[in-house]
Amino acid sequence: MRRRAKQEAKSLNAVAVEALARGLELDAKPTEHTDLDALIGSWKQDKAFDRAIADFERVDEEAWK
């Protein structure tokens, strides 16, 4: 740490505090979860929705040639 303090022209105390902060991940951004876990178990049957997406169930055979 003394070598780093000298190289960076910082006090030994400043380098030590920075090392502790890195070790404790104090400067890290909070983890942002982007998964869909919150939706598990929340599905509700909806006949209107099923009718609205019915076209997506149909396969266009011409498009797959």
Structural class: mainly alpha
Q: Which blocks of ≥5 consecutive residues have pLDDT under 50? A: none
Work out the number of β strands. 0
The main sheet comes to: none
- What percentage of the residues does DSSP assign to strands (E)? under 5%
Q: Helical element count? A: 3
Secondary-structure element pattern, one letter each: HHH
Give the CA-based shape: elongated
Query: What does the radius of gyration come to?
Result: 28 Å
Total separate domains: 1
Helix share bin: 25-40%
Q: How widely separated are the two ends?
A: 67 Å
Mean pLDDT: 86
Describe the structure.
The chain has 65 residues and is mostly helical. It has one domain (2-58). The chain is 37% helix and 0% strand. It is built from 3 helices and no strands. It is elongated, with a radius of gyration of 28 Å.
